[in-house]
Amino acid sequence: MGIHHYQLHCQRIDTSRNMARYYSLSIQQTLFGEMAVVRTWGRIGKAGGEMTELFGTERDAISRFLELARQKRKRGYTPARSCGNTG
After folding, report:
1. Sequence-separated (6 or more) residues with CB below 8 Å from residue 65
2. Which of 10, 21, 27, 33 has the smallest count of CB within 10 Å of its CB?
3. Percent of the chain at pLDDT exceeding 90
4. Beta-carbon-side half-sphere exposure of residue 29 (alpha carbons within 13 Å)
């Protein structure tokens, strides 16, 4: 995997609708050398769902990561905290 770490934790909170959701994305390398986009989601403070998608190349995984991040941004999710990425 390249020198960049792809990790995003975002949330969507709307107290008027009793909504407090989180959504996390990361790219991880599997033991077999494939790249995986790992997603977790749910209500803040509760166990949620998880899904892993496998890709043959890092480029394909990054493309999917960015596509998912854009979709969540359009739905009102905002970054919740720094995940250690430095700019």
Report:
1. 6, 8, 25, 27, 37
2. 33
3. 82
4. 11
Residue 35 has, within 13 A of its CA and on its CB side, a CA count of 18
Separation CA 37–CA 84 (nearest Å): 18
- The three-class DSSP label of residue 42 is strand
Residue 5 is predicted with a pLDDT of 79
pLDDT at site 2: 59
Q: What is the pTM of this model?
A: 0.83
Tell me: pLDDT of 50 over 90.
yes
Residue that has been written with the tokens 């739905």 in this structure:
75
d(CA 52, CA 44): 20
